[in-house]
Amino acid sequence: MPVHDWADLTWEEIRDLDRPRTVAVLPAGAVEAHGPHLPLGTDVIIARAMARAGAAKLAAKGVGATLLPALAYTAAPFGAGFPGTLSVSPATVTALVVDLARVLSRQRFAAMAVANAHLDPAHLGALADAAASGRREGLLPIVCPDVSRKPWALPLTEEFRSGACHAGRYEGSVVLAERPERVRESIRHALPANPASLAAAIRGGKQTFEEAGGPAAYFGWPADATAEEGRATIDALGGILADAVLEAIGPGRAT
Does a structural domain hold residue 213? Predict the structure, then answer.
């Protein structure tokens, strides 16, 4: 089955899709500080790459997919102290995602899959609340694998699993693979490693990048990023998304 960009289609082309066997994929990221070397839209770049890779894997399994325009405004309180970060309330995010699910349910799509690349706890909580609300209302499944948790984290890189992974090797590699012209290479190569675990800081109750030991809004090993690793990561993220969707909608929707 082909993969379609929703915004490129006409209303008649949406009408003519096999919608009960088609998943609407929502890339979700944030406009947020990612060190001095990566763009504010890094999460959105990663989410779009994950969405495309996941949609291609679903199509190979006989499940149609259409890529929704990305959700770029979300809760990002960890980065809110840095100029350029645009953080909105979690309740706003939950309401928007549920509203989208209502529309897609009325249009008889099989599921809404969230290709999420933003791991701020406030954002993850907003998505979890949206999925729970959708279930209570009997809407189409809102599928959002949390890549910060098992089993979804297991195929990802060592840096990612360490928790020291914001604007480091993991994210920098994906941006190098997708949008290399947006990486400030001279700055990236000069950055020292920051092995402080953002994940451990979150578990310890820290609430900002600064409190977590990231005064320049990065964690990990940014100088070690490579496009080759980025391409492998995109493939792994696509597999995670496709597996989560197939688990949610069941084998009867695929051929």
Answer: yes
pLDDT tens digits, 138-163? 999 999 999 998 899 899 999 999 98
Q: CA dist 100 to 107, 109, 209, Å?
A: 11, 11, 31
> Is residue 254 scored above 70 in pLDDT?
no
- Give the pLDDT score at 54: 98
Per DSSP bridges, beta strands 142-143 and 64-67 are unpaired
Predicted TM-score (pTM) of the model is 0.95
Q: How far is CA 216 from each of CA 36, 182, 247, rounded to the nearest angstrom?
A: 7, 18, 39
Helices and strands, number each (H, E), in the chain: 9, 5
Query: What's the angle, vertex CA 244, arms to CA 242 and CA 246, rounded to 5?
Result: 70
Strand arrangement of the beta sheet that strand 111-116 belongs to: 3-5, 64-67, 22-28, 111-116, 142-143
Write the pLDDT tens digit of every residue in 18-68. 999 999 999 999 999 999 999 999 999 999 999 999 999 999 999 999 999
Q: Is residue 44 domain-resident?
A: yes
- Cα–Cα dist 70/93, whole Å: 13
Torsion of CA 131, 133, 135, 138, to 10 degrees: -130
Number of domains the chain contains: 1
* CATH code for the domain in which residue 52 is found: 3.40.50.10310
Kindly state the tokens that stand for 51: 């969405």
Cα separation, 196 vs 181, whole angstroms: 28
